[in-house]
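cron nightly-structures :: item 1 of 1
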Amino acid sequence: MDDRLRKAERVMKLWVVLMNNPLRYTPSDLATKFETTVRTVYRDIKALEDMKIPTYSDKGKWAIDESSFLPPIRFSIPEALTIFLAARMLLSFSYRYDPNVEATFIKLNSVVPPLLREQIQETMDWMRNYRRMKNISGTS
């Protein structure tokens, strides 16, 4: 397995473990659990923070701030389509990359039927290309 893929998998597992454990873990506990070093755990926590996942440490034990997340909500397919279309309309008027919209699309893309998944993927591809072009041209 590629190192980047291994790291991504480890960071996602860390997110799940921290999110689902109210007792919290020390970096040493996490290093043992993930068969890695304490230093790697700190780098992975930093990666979560870079992804805008709010982590905190209390008496040396790490957790994720649950108040920053909504509880799971079950959407019907028409409701999911409405969210997608509203966000897509927002993009067409703003002409800017929004990481929150991309995160929403990624989550929606994992649960919607294939036809809608294709549309969401095309929009995400457009967002990434638009972002890339803006970075190349130096405008915001």
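cron nightly-structures :: done
The chain has a mean pLDDT of 85.
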